[in-house]
Design brief:
about 190 residues, mainly alpha, two-stranded antiparallel ribbon, Serine Threonine Protein Phosphatase 5, Tetratricopeptide repeat
Amino acid sequence: MVDSEWKTGIVMFRLQHYSEAIKHFDAVLNLSAGHLLAQEYKAKAQTNMGQDKPLVMETTTISTPETKTTVADNSSSPATTKVSSKLNTTVLVLIIVIPLVLIIAIVVIIVLVVTRKKGQVPVAQAPVYQQPAPQQVTTRAAKEQAIEEKPVEETKEENPEEEGKEDIKFCPTCGNEVDPTQVFCAKCGNKLK
């Protein structure tokens, strides 16, 4: 109520209906005694009372078969018309425009979600087949396997000349013989462990 009376008082003040504005400012001060702007504008309205434009009341004639009655109508004054048209516009915006914008936003979000889900079709990747490294059976490989199966003590005693050959390595991919200091296989380029 304070806001309503305050707005109406300001409208009346701007339209130079100072006596009417004072009534509304008094109503504001009755509801909220500490309202500083209402006190200030009431004082301004009182100082401008010499320039007051009276609020014109339009009359409407209501005719019935028996009598004709004249009724004063305050609702069609310019100030009231401006306030009511602003209220009508505000109500129109709140009731129609805001829900419409919300509906449009929801539809756009749904469309985006659906199109993104359709765009994320899983792509079947071709399986990668890797050929196993060919196993070459050589006499050295057979000897190394035999050495690995025997305990370490026995191998040193039985084959003292093969102690220097333990450093020989083979590439796990291609089976090529490689030097123990090499990092990559010279034949296939595979990284050695």
